[in-house]
Amino acid sequence: MRCLNLLKRLIIFIIIFLSISLLSNTLIYNYKAFYFSDEWLDEKILKDLGFSYVLNEKLFMAKNNDLFIGKNGNITLNFEKTFQNAYKVENRKLYINSKFLKEYFNLQETTLESGAKIYYDKLPELIRVDYKNNNLSLVFTSEITLDLIKSQVIDKTLHVLLSPITGEPLVFGKVSIEKSFNAFEILISGDMLKPVPIISIKKRTVDIEIKFTEEEKQTIKDGLVWERKIENYNNQKFLVNYLHIDPKKVEIKPLISSKGIGTREDLREMLQHYNFIAGINANYFDPSSNIPIDLVIIDGKLLSDKFGLRPAFIITDTNDVFIKRILVELYVNIGDLLFLVKGVNTNAKGEVLLYTSEYGLKIPFDSDKIYFLIQNNWIVAREYFEKVPDDSYILAINKKYEKYLINIDVGTKVTFNLNSNFELPIKHAIAAGPFLIENGQPIEDSDVEKLSYGNGLAFSKTTRTIIAITKDNKVDFIVIEGYNNSPGMNYDMAVEFLLNKGYVSAMMLDGGGSSAMVVNNKVVNQDGEIQRGIPVGIGIK
Q1: Which of 93, 104, 82 is nearest to 41 (CA)?
Q2: How far apart are CA 125 and CA 492, in angstroms?
Q3: Which of these, 57, 156, 54, 166, lies nearest to 120 by C-alpha position?
Q4: Closest CA to 134 of 185, 177, 190
Q5: Is 56 helix (H, G, I), strand (E, B) or coil?
Q6: SS (H, E, C) 458-495
Q7: Whether residue 16 has pLDDT greater than 70
Q8: pLDDT band at 155 (very low <50, low <70, confident <90, very high)
Q9: What are 313's strand-pairing partners?
Q10: Is the pLDDT of residue 10 over 80?
């Protein structure tokens, strides 16, 4: 038993070590910036860099007039030069080593104090600095990422360090700027108040909104209050944004990208499209397909199915709110036949798949499937469609059931039944995690919960988006960030922080670079990566 406990502690230590060791890096090429972890870039970045490829037993890749052939992780360029350990394939996804791209593009490399690496063909140039009305605007010749910006408050003066950056910028407004080798330092004094920088990055422009206070509170409408505070916990400061919500007075609703499932959208644009005034990011998602991971139910309609027993934020027909682990299954009745749907709006394999009109991608064609178009609970066509028409469904069933489907054709009645072990009717639901608090206590299986999320997610200190329910059944949406260049919170810190606040249940949503809170079309948290698109958000109006 002692050896087993020692092994468990060793495994947890290794996971913690790996999560701490993960660093974000930046590649700047042809005026565009790409953000990636460790040394591997995913296939989406590869395509954005102008590569095309086919991946079978070998990798065949092309860019301009260059041909690359890959085998066993090595890539040969134009049958002449070979790059070792240049790519890998995990879960059928291609990843390219940054060292290969550095050599192929002849990129320069610099390492920041944090250990993050910057690869570039040409350093971004700062061309304009504009400070007015407590807003600092920085314009560059190329895209940049948050890794090139460091902010710190010293004696009520905001120091913004830009590195590695070159240029001869035009400067407007009352701001001090100091230039050194490949770096700039911009200083803004807060006089008697401490400046709180809220940084947002949009391609070649960095906007820094400066609030000269440690606390701000605003009633958005009856039942919705936004609050931003610098909180002290465990001898560290955190910038915490809250949306205090009374679900009986305002509407809370999951929202998908206006372009459909399988696409991403800036949270501000998503809220504007659906006429919501505030919101946060929601589900985890597959970055290669932009398809959300885990449960999404909107107005009782299943748009994405469950992924294990992760916690779900549930809103009932009476606008009561819960955080529970639930099971959800969708059954379809076709005439006298009953099928369990194995996947909804997915590009994964499954014997019975359902696509709704919210699906924004091309439906994967499978020659082993029979396709049915359903409208108003009736089959109206028995054929493949690339897209789901409005107010319709596409049902794809494996041909192994073909003998049972011989008499199923146009005019057959179809009904759907959404079953759950949750005791009340579900109007909306979003699932993510990890699960933090249940019945006012840390969850009993917290060690298992922490280890059930990959990439050391629960152990790393990063920005967190959280849903928490109060004793009087109200809801707080929370975004917690490190303040003044300190890191965010890990799982255990978040649990203790929330318990001290008196919450009875709580769960995390997607965090890190996806964390976002928007109020009245303004991003109120300071993480510079929150403008990246997300497939699912939660809106309030």
Answers
A1: 93
A2: 41
A3: 166
A4: 190
A5: coil
A6: CCCCECEEEEEECCCCCEEEEEEEECCCCCCECHHHHH
A7: no
A8: confident
A9: 323, 430
A10: no
Residues 523 and 268 sit within 8 Å (Cβ to Cβ) = yes
Mean pLDDT throughout 435-458? Answer: 93
Place of tokens 């303004």: 522
Burial 34-46 (b: 16+ CB within 10 A, else e): bbbeeebbbbebb
Residue 196 token pair: 């709180």
Maximal C-alpha separation, the chain: 80
User: pLDDT, tens digit, for every residue of 19-45?
Assistant: 333 457 899 999 999 988 788 999 999
Find the range with the poorest average confidence among 185-199, 223-237, 332-346, 456-470.
185-199
Extended beta strands in 174-309, E state:
176-180, 183-189, 196-202, 205-211, 215-221, 224-233, 236-245, 252-256, 278-281, 284-285, 292-293, 296-298, 301-304
Q: What single string gives the DSSP state of each residue in 175-198?
A: -EEEEETTEEEEEEE-TTS--EEE
Cα–Cα distance for residue pair 531/328, rounded to 1 Å: 32
CB 285 within 8 A of CB 538: no
CB 37 within 8 A of CB 22: yes
Instruction: Report the distance separating Cα 202 and Cα 210, nearest Å.
Output: 17
The closest of 534, 489, 498, 493 to 516, measured between CA atoms, is 534
- Locate 57 and state its tokens: 């037993």
User: Tokens representing 199?
Assistant: 């940084």
Q: Is 82 in contact with 75 (CB distance < 8 Å)?
A: yes
Residue type, 324: K
The string of pLDDT tens digits covering residues 400-428 is 999 999 999 999 999 999 999 999 999 99
Look at residue 471 and tell me whether its pLDDT is greater than 70.
Answer: yes
Residues listed for the chain: 541
- Residue 7's identity, in one-letter code, is L
Amino acid at 76: T
Identity of the amino acid at 49: L
Contact between residue 32 and residue 143 where contact means Cβ atoms under 8 Å apart: yes
